[in-house]
Amino acid sequence: MTMTLTEKIFAKKSGKTRVEPGENVWVNVDVLMTHDVCGPGTIGIFKREIGEDAKVWNPDSIVLIPDHYIFTTDEKSNRNVDILRAFAKEQGIKYFYDVIDDPNGKWRYDASKENITKQYGSRYAGVCHTTIAERGHARPGEVLLGTDSHTCTAGAFNEFATGIGNTDAGFVMATGKILLKTPPTIRFILEKSLNPRVMAKDIILWIIGMIGFDGATYKAMEFGGDGTNWLEMDDRMTIANMAIEAGGKNGIFPFDDKTAKYVSFATARAGTKSEYEPVEQNLSAKVDAEYKIDLSKLEPVVALHPNPGNRRIARECGDIKIDRAYIGSCTGGKVSDFYAFAEVIEGHRVKVPTFGVPATSLVLKELKSTMRGEKSIWNILADAGVTLTENASCAACLGGPEDTFGRMNKPEICISTTNRNFPGRMGHIESKVILASPATVAASAIKGVVTDPRDI
Ligand code: SF4
What we know:
Elements: H1 5-14, E1 24-28, E2 31-35, H2 39-50, E3 62-65, H3 75-91, H4 128-134, E4 143-146, E5 160-163, H5 166-175, E6 177-181, E7 185-191, H6 200-211, E8 220-224, H7 226-230, H8 233-241, E9 250-252, H9 257-270, E10 289-294, E11 301-303, E12 311-313, E13 324-327, H10 329-332, H11 335-345, E14 354-356, H12 361-369, E15 371-372, E16 375-376, H13 377-383, E17 387-388, E18 413-416, E19 432-435, H14 438-447
Parallel strand pairs: 2-3, 2-4, 4-5, 7-8, 7-10, 8-9, 13-14, 13-18, 14-17, 18-19
Antiparallel strand pairs: 1-6, 11-12, 15-16
Helix pairs in contact: 2-5, 6-8, 11-13, 11-14
Bound molecules: iron/sulfur cluster.
Iron/sulfur cluster (SF4) binds near residues 128, 330 and 418.
């Protein structure tokens, strides 16, 4: 009997020859990631339960990424970064992407400088899930856990990646192990390729609309078919990122040359471990359900307030007015996202306030150096009237303190490249978020109403 991708990883990492869906197994963890919001809580549990002087199971397997509430005067948020720094020093954790360069310093955001020009040091990275990929912490065949629900993003790299709570993370920190129930799998066979201006975000919004925002609860969402070959790694990350928005335990892609090329570039650039053992996809493995999706038939879609499964065809939403637009986050703040946005916005002006936040410091660099004709991507957006910050972070994706860049402080409607639109997600409890691809967000920003990017 063959196994799914997730079952193969569970079997390998638990020392078994095979596992069955529903089976509880102790799994060996390769990487544990935490950030400024959950890191201090995780560290507190680790110390309380294991001991004040306890040592982590392997300092090189722990990745600390401040990214959520960074560019804010909120003192508690600033202090969280200091707690991560102290812990990294105490435990000898080298993969700590600190906001400042001074290992003995304290992070304090300077509000007297506008939140436009960068305020971070040379090691700062930005949004955790994008950083995990860029800095070579996502490797095929491995198990990556993170104290963040969108840790599933790394499933793009043919690994098992999922979010866990602080208590579990405290245990993993000490032992490198976790008890997991093997999730049953739903398989999505992607066929053919997307038409111009239809993006990976449209694929995953389509799927969540089809199965519902709880349609994959505690299931592995496995992608396969010829259509996956056509998808770039950024596309696969966008899709895997939103597995949790359908309740999925994880999202996972097959391994191919594109995966190998990305991982070898990222690990070489960052100096992280470059050896790995991918798992091979077997489409005859038994799954709970299988869906076939013809990518050539998809069109731009949005997910209206109040959940990511509330799918509508973009062209049928022309009477829905928006107050603002936003491009950023682990889902929609990558270089390819900004490039798609620039393709639509070039030569136009935005009609509503529009905010842009690169996911990471590396994305920022590329946006400034990647040219489209005579102009950089960065300048194309700036010239179209988009307010951009160099301070790569989660920013307004989950609201944050009131002074967060791009935060919705009024009950307005925002169309956004982010991944979640439950009430109050981007700030004010009565604000509404419409989820869309970067191309659709750009087109809508130009028109001031939800707009299909093919109509620009
Ligand atoms: S960008 Fe948004 S979804 Fe991604 S990790 Fe940050 S807050 Fe979470």
